[in-house]
Each structure stands twice: as C-alpha cells, then as structure tokens.
Amino acid sequence: MRRTGSSSRLRHTSRVTVAPCDVRGRVRGPAVVGTAGFVPRAEWPQALAALRRAYGLRFTLGNATSRLVHRLLRRPGDRHELIRIHPA
C-alpha cells in the first residue's frame, strides 16, 4: 500500500470533503461532506470496470501510463488503492 497523504488521512478518519476541481486542483463547485473507505481487492474488477465506463479513454490512458511508469521505476508493491466515497 502506498503512503500518500490521502491514504494516510483515510486510515486515520473516514470523514472526507470532496468538491469538483480542474486539473490544477482549483475548486469549481460546492463541496460535499461524506465518508470514504478503501475498496477491497475482491471488488477491484467491478470498480475498474465502472471507472472505464465513466471515463473511457481518459481512464484507460491514465491507467496504462501509471502502470508503465511503475514498471520503469521498478517500484515495489502496489501502484495505487481504490477509494469508495459515499455522501453523508
């Protein structure tokens, strides 16, 4: 499991606030409070299929790029985690 800021905070508390933003992280709409958790490995195929349906080529290219960089840098362990967010 990677040790990013988001995953570390999520391990501490499941409360989240999410808002639509642009590529640079500038908020573009109202924030929504919710709860989040890691998707179990057994549910990854369904979650990845849902992401492919929702984002199409953008997701496919981003995921492929992530896999390639991970392999080129020979990083050990998992590349990422999947997070499920529910509105409160």
Task: Describe what this molecule looks like in 3D.
The chain has one domain (5-87). The protein has two helices and three strands, in the order H-E-E-H-E. The chain has helices at residues 5-12, 44-72, and strands at residues 15-18, 32-38, 83-87. It is globular. The chain starts with a helix and ends with a strand. The mean pLDDT is 87.
Oligomer state equals single chain
Q: Poorly predicted ranges (pLDDT <50, ≥5 residues)?
A: none
Binned strand content: 15-25%
Main pleated-sheet profile: 3 strands, antiparallel
**Count of spatially separate domains:** 1
* Helix proportion: 40-55%
Q: Using DSSP, what is the number of strands?
A: 3
Number of helices: 2
Average pLDDT rating: 87
Q: What overall form do the CA principal axes indicate?
A: globular
Termini separation = 26 Å
The class by helix and strand makeup works out as alpha+beta
What is the radius of gyration computed over CA atoms, rounded to a whole number of angstroms? 14 Å
How do the helices and strands follow one another from N- to C-terminus?
HEEHE
Strand order of the largest sheet: 1-2-3
